Amino acid sequence: MQTRQLGPFTVNAIGLGCMSMSHAYGTPDPVEAEKALLRALDLGYNFLDTAALYGFGKNEELLGRVLQGRRHEFVLASKCGMFKGPDGKRQIDGRPATLRQTCEAALERLRTDVIDLYYLHRRDFSVPVEDSIGEMSRLVQEGKVRTLGLSEVSAATLRKAHAVHPLTALQTEYSLWSRNAEIAVLDACRELGIAFVAFSPLARAFLTGTLSDPATQLEAADIRRHMPRFYPENYAKNLALLTRYQHIATDANCTLAQLALAWLLHRAPHIIPIPGTRHVAYVEENIGALKVSLSQAQMNQLDQLINHTTVSGDRYNAATQEEIDTEQF
Ligand SMILES: NC(=O)c1ccc[n+]([C@@H]2O[C@H](COP(=O)([O-])OP(=O)(O)OC[C@H]3O[C@@H](n4cnc5c(N)ncnc54)[C@H](OP(=O)(O)O)[C@@H]3O)[C@@H](O)[C@H]2O)c1
Q1: Do 160 and 172 touch, CB atoms closer than 8 A?
Q2: Which of 3.30.70.100, 3.40.630.30, 3.40.30.10, 3.20.20.100 is the CATH number of 3-204+256-291?
Q3: C-beta 210 within 6 A of ligand 1
Q4: Closest C-alpha residue for ligand 1 atom 48
Q5: Of 2, 123, 191, 228, whose CB neighbour count within 10 A is largest?
Q6: 201 lines ligand 1 (CB under 6 A)
Q7: Residue 326: which of 155, 127, 119, 80 has the closest Cα?
Q8: Going by CA atoms, what residue is nearest to atom 37 of ligand 1?
């Protein structure tokens, strides 16, 4: 097994993102999700990613129910700071009392005594990040949480928070088509000894080649419908990039999804991709990326083929972009 360091934990170099089992990409299928979770542990996945946000607690509940007898087999990561607001809609809230409440409810949903890695899901711009992380560090002192992380923050915010409590991980989007992390946070993580957990490493299915027509394949409630890169006019142009991408995958003797993950693993030793899936077959396929070896020439070809200058459409729409710590760009 290829491993990576995640603070005090040594984990499989590929983790499992559990979001789509309950949230974001269409109607959940708990039966298949349960099979996928169990198969993942059998295959050696030992770093699982969830959040209070996913299905407003349903994803944590799923993991708690299905994996309660196997809790010792994996490093459990969850997130606070983005949950259901009083109006029933998603709300960013980094106030200390809210984070504590979310953590205590999460422990019950997850049927565990301790969360190994607890992230602040989004920085709340109305609360100093030192206050949010300060309260989370008290959760560590109390033994409810083992280590801390942040998600989607700038290098400056990362440094501020790291000064309050040493961080284990930063979780931010990173894939061939989302390269913002290359501006500053990847380097900041390396310098500070913080693992970089790459979310949406398959470009939310774009880099798997299975999503050919978002307009007909995605359900009405799928969040990708609101992401500019998936708008029909942009997506058609993005799809054209996959022809050469497929040639490189054939050359490397792997699938398209495996190529996307192998590119990340070859990029730097502190990067841990967490591909998301609710399907057994994809759980099996994705871990196969550990066996893929890419030459420097293949890495260069990929870099030039798919990057921020060749992709059409912004990563997020304007409303979602406003929630992000833009200092990172
Ligand atoms: N911190 C944050 O703000 C944040 C934001 C987004 C995600 N995340 C975390 O990162 C994880 C991964 O990100 P993501 O799920 O957004 O994107 P992703 O991993 O880039 O892509 C997931 C999509 O690809 C599909 N897929 C997975 N493996 C495949 C394969 N081998 N062949 C074909 N299709 C495949 C999945 O399908 P199925 O689901 O239908 O199997 C799903 O539609 C999430 O689960 C979550 O834990 C964190």
Answers
A1: no
A2: 3.20.20.100
A3: yes
A4: 199
A5: 123
A6: yes
A7: 155
A8: 277
